[in-house]
Design a protein that fits this description.
With about 70 residues, this protein is an all-alpha fold. The protein has one domain (about 15-70). It is built from 3 helices and no strands. InterPro entries: DUF465, DUF465_sf.
């Protein structure tokens, strides 16, 4: 995710607690969705869609933080 910001992501994960929480939650959702889609974790389509929407919202938030930090 966001390879153009790889170094900035590494820095923000250690320096910005809010960014770190968002990043960790995004990865957690990615793992949960993957498990649901492959049948490892039982679920229905509406549960998967809800998690995907949350993940997308987090990705938007992460991108906003990255853009702001890269402009500073």
């Amino acid at each position: 995710m966001f390879p153009e910001f790889r170094d900035l992501i590494s820095r923000l994960k250690t320096e910005d607690a809010h960014f770190s929480r968002l990043f960790d939650r995004h990865n957690e959702l990615d793992h949960q969705i993957s498990n649901m889609e492959t049948g490892v974790t039982p679920s229905d389509n509406s549960a998967i869609e809800a998690l995907k929407k949350e993940k997308l919202q987090l990705k938007d938030e992460l991108y906003a933080v990255l853009k702001k930090a890269s402009a500073a």
